[in-house]
C-alpha cells in the first residue's frame, strides 16, 4: 500500500484573495478575542496554511505585549507579513469595518426606539448576562495571569485602588508598570511573561510563512523604518484632529473624542475589558456623553456583534455625538460621525504599533526587563475588571426605588449566565439570545 505524498507548500496568496478572507472574517468574528483568534488559527494555520503554527504563536505572543485589541493586531500582523503595509491595512480595516457599520445601525435603533417595550425587555435580559461575561473575562485572564502571590497581590491592590480609592485608571497602569520594572530587576522569576508555548510544535504541512521562512525584508528592524512609520502614524492622527478642532473648536464633542480615544487606545493593556473603566470614567463621569445605564446597554450591544469588543467605543461616540448635536442637525448623521471618530482614533495606534514597532518588540520580547512591566500591568487588569463587574452589577441588580432593593429576577439571570459561561462553556451569542428571550418572557408575564 503506497504512502500518501506529503502535502505541498501552498502557492503564494494574492492580496485580492486575502481581501475576501479578511472581509468574511469581519462578518463572522463573534466570540470575543479568544473566538476570533481560534477562527484565524483554524483557517490560516490548519486549512489554508498561510502561516505556520509557531509563527502564528510568535505573532500572538507579540500582540499580547502591546496595548490594544490583540485579535485585531494579530490580523494586522499576519496581513503585514504576507503583503507588507497594504496587507496590514486591508486586514485591519476589514476586521473592524463590518462591526463598526453594524454598531452604528444598532446604536441608531437604540437611540430612536430604545424606549419601546420590546427593546427594553430584550435589554433587561441581556444586561445581567453582560455582568456575567465581564466576570468570566476576569476569571479567564486571572487564571492565565495570576501565577504567583506577587501578581495576585498586584491584582488585589489595583481593585482597591479603583473601587475604594477611586484612583484614575492611568495611575493604576503606571503604578503596576513601576512595580513590574522593579520586580523584574530584583525578583525576575515572579514576572516571567506567560502565554509562551516553546514546547508546542504542531505541523499541518508546509506553510507559505513557515518556521524556517526568513523574516521578510520589510519586517526587519531599522531605525529609519521605525522613525518613518511613527511619523506617518502621528501625522495620520494629528491631521484629522487638527481639522476637527479647527472646524468646530477643540472643546467640541468630536475633537474631544479624538483626543480622549487616542489616550484610551494607549492604555488597553489586557484587552477591551481593561480599558472599559477608563472609558467609563471619561465618557460618563467627566464628559457626560452618556449615562451609566447607557454604557451597560452599549456593552450588551458590543457583545452581540462581530468584531473586537473595544468597538463599544463606536456606541459611546454615537450616543455622545447624538446627545450633543447642534440644534437642527440630523441626529443620525451626527451619531455616525461620532462613532467613526471614536473608532478611527481608537484603532489607529494598533496599526502604528505593528508597522513601526513590530520588528523591535519581536526582537526583544524574551527580555525580562521589557516584559516584566507588561506582566504586572496584566495582573493589575484583573482587579480592574472585577471592579468593573461589580460596578455594572450595582446598576443592573439594584432597583432605583425610594427604598433600593435587589432585582431578584435580574440576579437569577446573571447567576444562570455565570454558570453557563464558567461551567458549561456556552458561547456568548447563544447566551445573549437565551437571556434576551428570558427578558421578553419576564416582561410580558408580569
Automatic annotation (TrEMBL):
<feature type="transmembrane region" description="Helical">
    <location>
        <begin position="300"/>
        <end position="322"/>
    </location>
</feature>
<comment type="similarity">
    <text>Belongs to the chromate ion transporter (CHR) (TC 2.A.51) family.</text>
</comment>
<dbReference type="GO" id="GO:0015109">
    <property type="term" value="F:chromate transmembrane transporter activity"/>
</dbReference>
<keyword id="KW-1133">Transmembrane helix</keyword>
<protein>
    <submittedName>
        <fullName>Chromate transporter</fullName>
    </submittedName>
</protein>
<feature type="transmembrane region" description="Helical">
    <location>
        <begin position="329"/>
        <end position="354"/>
    </location>
</feature>
<feature type="transmembrane region" description="Helical">
    <location>
        <begin position="260"/>
        <end position="280"/>
    </location>
</feature>
<dbReference type="GO" id="GO:0005886">
    <property type="term" value="C:plasma membrane"/>
</dbReference>
<keyword id="KW-1003">Cell membrane</keyword>
<feature type="transmembrane region" description="Helical">
    <location>
        <begin position="374"/>
        <end position="393"/>
    </location>
</feature>
<feature type="transmembrane region" description="Helical">
    <location>
        <begin position="226"/>
        <end position="248"/>
    </location>
</feature>
<feature type="transmembrane region" description="Helical">
    <location>
        <begin position="88"/>
        <end position="110"/>
    </location>
</feature>
<dbReference type="InterPro" id="IPR014047">
    <property type="entry name" value="Chr_Tranpt_l_chain"/>
</dbReference>
<feature type="transmembrane region" description="Helical">
    <location>
        <begin position="405"/>
        <end position="422"/>
    </location>
</feature>
<keyword id="KW-0812">Transmembrane</keyword>
<dbReference type="InterPro" id="IPR003370">
    <property type="entry name" value="Chromate_transpt"/>
</dbReference>
<keyword id="KW-0472">Membrane</keyword>
<feature type="transmembrane region" description="Helical">
    <location>
        <begin position="20"/>
        <end position="39"/>
    </location>
</feature>
<dbReference type="Pfam" id="PF02417">
    <property type="entry name" value="Chromate_transp"/>
</dbReference>
<feature type="transmembrane region" description="Helical">
    <location>
        <begin position="116"/>
        <end position="139"/>
    </location>
</feature>
<feature type="transmembrane region" description="Helical">
    <location>
        <begin position="151"/>
        <end position="182"/>
    </location>
</feature>
